[in-house]
Amino acid sequence: MAMNPAPPLLEVSGLCVGRGTQRILDGVDLRIDGGEIIALLGANGAGKTTLARCVAGLMRPVAGSVWLDGARVDSMHPSSRRALGMAVNHWLLPLELSGHECVQLFARAQGQPGHAPAAAPLLLSLGLDASRLAQPLGCYSLGMRQKLGLALGMLGSPRLLVLDESLSGLDAVSLAAAEALLRARCAQGAAVLLATHALEHAARFADRLLLLHAGRVAGAWRRDELTVLAGQGHDLLQVLGAATAIQAASGGAG
């Protein structure tokens, strides 16, 4: 007897956001299995942030559904909240708090001990030691705020981590540290959804790349497919640009 395939960690079905013909998302379908890093690519206004916010339960779609780890996200079931982490954008961090106070605040909000001892190795691996955490966030550089926001999203070891342009502003050493952390989490069965306009981040991190255009998924590539294209001398930006142009010419179907 054939065994039923394991259900995906994340399943997005027919997701629509917007009214009438003004659709930001127009019937998006997406499946992510544990262990995967998925990159969402697209121009500004393509719907990357909207999709990320719907997945995180921060925006309610007009149609469609989002299921995470067996629970419907838009119902904000406690199990779906525990299963999800979203990196905090640097402009949303409370600059009057110290890094340590910020970690305490977010840990308590997640029902963890206020001192969050499990966060110490995570923070240290991103270059945020005790001396850094004692400083107010207003003194942090953009890169330091990005690293703290990433760490806050990873508190509690969520099954799915959503990153919305969360790697921009990181130097090469910090980017490598972030990649190692994300890969380690995925090796334990977690998954990452990375929304970005930076192809270099997507090509470096992702197992699969999805191109959003006109509110729909216009193209999808596995990492090995991109490696073959690059090995043949193809410019990956041109590949993605051509897919966008073809999609636009066909009226946005796909």
From TrEMBL:
Stored InterPro entries: AAA+_ATPase, ABC_transporter-like_ATP-bd, ABC_transporter-like_CS, ABC_Transporter_VariousFunc, P-loop_NTPase
Membrane-spanning segments: none
Protein name listed in UniProt: ABC transporter domain-containing protein
SMART domains (UniProt xref): AAA
Annotated PANTHER family: ABC TRANSPORTER ATP-BINDING PROTEIN ALBC-RELATED
UniProt entry tagged with the keyword Transport: yes
Alphabetical keyword list: ATP-binding, Nucleotide-binding, Transport
Residue intervals of the ABC transporter domain: 10-239
Gene Ontology MF term list: ATP binding; ATP hydrolysis activity
